[in-house]
Design brief:
The protein is an alpha+beta fold and about 210 residues long. Helices cover about 30% and strands about 25% of the residues. The protein has one domain (about 10-205): Aminopeptidase. Strands 1, 2, 3, 4, 5, 6, 7, 8 and 9 form a nine-stranded mixed β-sheet that branches.
C-alpha cells in the first residue's frame, strides 16, 4: 500500500506563547529540533527523540509535533501495531495505530493534544486507513494530574474524538482487564468492507474460545 504523507501546519495561541503544530515531520526535521526534557512518559527524552526519528523513517510512520520555536513540547505517533500485539495477528496494510501521545505538563489544558490529533486527520490519506488507539490506565499520568481513572479517561476520549476516533468493543484481555481501558478507532471513508471485517475479527478473537 502506498503511504502518502501530506504535510500540514497550524499555529496555536496559548498563555505561554504561540505553538506550531505540524506534521507529518521528516526524520531530518526532527533531528534539527530540540526535545523537551519534560517528555518522559515512555522513556528518557534522548531515547524518545531517537525513537521518533526512527518512526518518521518508516514508510507508514507519521510524527505530528507541537513546538515552541525549535523546542518540541508534544508529539503524536502513528505506525503499524507492534508485531507482538493482537492487532498484528491478521496482516493489514491499512490498519495503523496512534501509538503514543505526550505533551509536557506546562501545556496541559491548552488543547495541544487535541489539535495535534485534529491536524493529523486533515491529511486525506488518512481516509485509506483504520486508525486505532489502545488506552490503558497504567500509561496515564494519574499522579501528576491528580485525576482518577474515570476523569482521565474522559479527557482521553474527548481528545481522541477530536480526530474522529470512537469507542469500539473488544475482548482483548489487556483491555478487558480494567473497565477504564478501552479501544478507540477511526475507519477512513475509503476503507474496504473486507478490511472492516478483518478489524472485527481482530476485536473479537476470543469469541469461540471456551
Amino acid at each position: 500500500m502506498e503511504h502518502i504523507k501530506a504535510y500540514n501546519s497550524m499555529e496555536l495561541e496559548t498563555v505561554r506563547g504561540t505553538l506550531i503544530i505540524e506534521g507529518p515531520v521528516s526524520s531530518e526535521k526532527l533531528k534539527s529540533y530540540d526535545f523537551h526534557e519534560g517528555l518522559v512518559a515512555f522513556r528518557p527524552p534522548a531515547q524518545q527523540h531517537k525513537a521518533l526519528i526512527e518512526i518518521a523513517d518508516l514508510p507508514e510512520g507519521r510524527i505530528i509535533i507541537a513546538r515552541q520555536q525549535e523546542m518540541i513540547i508534544g508529539y503524536v505517533t502513528y505506525l503499524y501495531p507492534d508485531p507482538l500485539e493482537r492487532w498484528s495477528e491478521i496482516k493489514m496494510d491499512d490498519l495503523i495505530e496512534l501509538g503514543a501521545i505526550e505533551v509536557i505538563k506546562d501545556y496541559r489544558g491548552a488543547s495541544v493534544g487535541k489539535n495535534m490529533i485534529r491536524l493529523s486527520m486533515t491529511d486525506d490519506a488518512m481516509e485509506d486507513f483504520i486508525i486505532i488507539t489502545t488506552e490503558y490506565y497504567w500509561h496515564w499520568d494519574l499522579k501528576g494530574t491528580g485525576l482518577n481513572v474515570w476523569d482521565y479517561r474522559k479527557i482521553m476520549e474527548k481528545m481522541m474524538s477530536a480526530g474522529g476516533l470512537e469507542y469500539y468493543a473488544t475482548d482483548d484481555p489487556e483491555i478487558s482487564s480494567h473497565p477504564a481501558n478501552c479501544l478507540m478507532a477511526r475507519i477512513g471513508k475509503r476503507v474496504e468492507p473486507e478490511s472492516i471485517q478483518k478489524f472485527d475479527q481482530l476485536r473479537f478473537m476470543n469469541r469461540f474460545m471456551y
